[in-house]
Known about the structure:
heterodimer; A: 2 helices; about 0% strand; elongated; B: mainly alpha; about 75% helix
Amino acid sequence: xxxxxxxxxxxxxxxxxxxxxxxxxxxxxxxxxxxxxxxxxxxxxxxxxxxxxxxxxxxxxxxxxxxxxxx
Amino acid sequence: xxxxxxxxxxxxxxxxxxxxxxxxxxxxxxxxxxxxxxxxxxxxxxxxxxxxxxxxxxxxxxxxxxxxxxxxxxxxxxxxxxxxxxxxxxxxxxxxxxxxxxxxxxxxxxxxxxxxxxxxxxxxxxxxxxxxxxxxxxxxxxxxxxxxxxxxxxxxxxxxxxxxxxxxxxxxxxxxxxxxxxxxxxxxxxxxxxxxxxxxxxxxxxxxxxxxxxxxxxxxxxxxxxxxxxxxxxxxxxxxxxxxxxxxxxxxxxxxxxxxxxx
Lengths: 71, 263
């Protein structure tokens, strides 16, 4: 983010942005990687990839939110 | 609706969603013209009328209507538009003000006597609004950041190690382009739906135990029902305002995000 965009009036925006985006990221992360895991499970006849995918999705979404909003 | 249930059975039955939300057409034979449609139209006319009355011929010393509406305008401008749009706020006030007032009046219909139906508790209404905002968001994004640039900014936030993009872009895509418009509509719909159910349930409890089957033991329950109806009506009015504010605020946030890519 450039210096010009870091004016005080943008703080409220960044905060609200983070508050609305993070739950959405977590949900999307679980859906994408949980979904991939579920498909893998169906394909391979297993049941381990679905929970692994959900956890992986949560971790990745948390990482994404951390990198985007922790500045 | 509730009177039918009361007469039909001897025991207390909570109102079902089918009774509350599946309303018959007002004019028999015209299937699309139901109570929520009528209320949505009346609300739209009311918003036009209020804005026309207040702002068509503004005075330096505002009259009563202009005064009230200016409070509304300033609220939307300072709390909804400016935090997200900055210097572009004034250009988008027409849309955001209309959106806020329309959703607010749709919602407040839920506690206005006789009307007593929050329009947004039929998901079609918030879905149309959220869908329009979604189309606008994507259009503005493509216009201001280029058709490719928009999706690039959206899915590849700068400052991450290259291989990580492979893992994170699907999350960004799903979150911004699929989940966002869905939750935008569902948030408003679900709040109004649940609020209407709660109010209907508690007023049914009060009506049943105090008027239909008044017994010494049941009277206390009926009184609780009436008290809870009053408490929840006040709470519901707060939620109705809050959801209208959030709906307009999210619209402003999406528009702002398309105009100025950041992060």
